[in-house]
Design brief:
By secondary structure, the chain is an alpha+beta fold. The protein has two domains: 110 residues, 3-Layer(aba) Sandwich (Aminopeptidase); 148 residues, Aminopeptidase. The chain is 36% helix and 33% strand. The chain has nine helices and twelve strands. A twelve-stranded mixed β-sheet has the order 1-2-3-4-5-12-6-11-10-9-8-7, sandwiched between helices. A hairpin with a 2-residue loop joins strand 2 and strand 3. The protein is globular. It starts with a strand and ends with a strand. The mean pLDDT is 91.
């Protein structure tokens, strides 16, 4: 596999054609190619008969080098494992379908316990209008006045009150970028009580993340209202919502499934 040194318009289209074979699970790289190609990070490609056959995308996220990959078969996964062995970076976070992560980590002799998630897609045929209580509203965060509450919610969601990890997820430039993609605040009366984000999107899909409700407002139906508002906004954008949920979090999985999300595949995030 070779590092892509220059992303020409033709190469960009060829790479997108390859990734759109499985659009939803390749959403991470598609989003950067279509919306932020200048900040995409490093792309490595393998080819067979002058056609793209596998891809590795490496981007530093402030905490680790995030690796998203795509291959059509086991020989392609072998090439990807070989490339990862050659990369000289510290702290990788490997993301992909569970069976492929298991295959690659076995090739790398990585015996760390895998962190399993379910990759869920919303069944748009189940979309219905909903009516929230009059005093509960959703608005998109849009200015500097919203940044302090966003920082508070991010720290609480990720459990990082202080230190470098907290700084990486709460610095103003990153929040500004995330607000452009869509950070939404749930308000009950005069108090902001929750938040959710759209973190990436492609032609058909949009990913919901960081669904958070203040502790004292939990188990009162506000989480359902928040997700329903996000589904409504996704419909306005003409995109199908997707999200990840930990496989062991049966309460969250039941919650999302009751709202109309369905399993697409098992997905794994693994530090190596």
């Amino acid at each position: 596999m070779e590092k892509l040194l220059y992303l020409s318009a033709e190469m960009k289209e060829n790479l997108l054609d390859f990734l759109y074979i499985d659009e939803s699970t390749n959403l991470y790289t598609i989003h950067f190619l279509e919306n932020h190609p200048q900040g995409i990070g490093d792309i490595y490609l393998g080819t067979e008969e002058n056609e793209i056959s596998e891809m590795v995308h490496v981007k530093y996220d402030g905490n680790s080098h995030f690796i998203h990959f795509y291959a059509m078969d086991h020989p392609g996964l072998d090439k990807i494992a070989g490339l990862i062995l050659k990369l000289k970076k510290k702290k990788y976070l490997l993301a992909g379908q569970t069976q492929e992560i298991e295959y690659i980590t076995a090739k790398l002799n990585n015996m760390n316990q895998l962190n399993h998630y379910l990759y869920l897609q919303y069944n748009t045929e189940l979309m219905q209008d909903f009516y929230a209580p009059r005093q509960v509203t959703l608005r998109q965060a849009s200015d500097e006045a919203d940044i302090p509450i966003i920082k508070e919610f991010l720290r609480a969601f990720f459990g990082t009150e202080t230190g470098k990890a907290s700084q990486n997820i709460t610095h103003n430039q990153k929040i500004d970028e995330d607000m452009k993609k869509g950070i939404y605040l749930l308000q009950a009366g005069k108090e902001i009580i929750g938040m959710a984000r759209f973190i990436r999107y492609s032609y058909h899909y949009i990913e919901i993340s960081t669904v958070y409700i203040k502790e004292k407002y939990r188990n009162q139906g506000y989480g359902k209202i928040l997700i329903q508002y996000m589904l409504k906004e996704a419909r306005r954008l003409d995109k199908t919502p997707i999200l990840h949920s930990e496989l062991t979090n049966t309460k969250a999985l039941k919650f999302y499934q009751q709202l109309g999300f369905q399993e697409y595949c098992q997905y794994t995030f693994q530090f190596i």
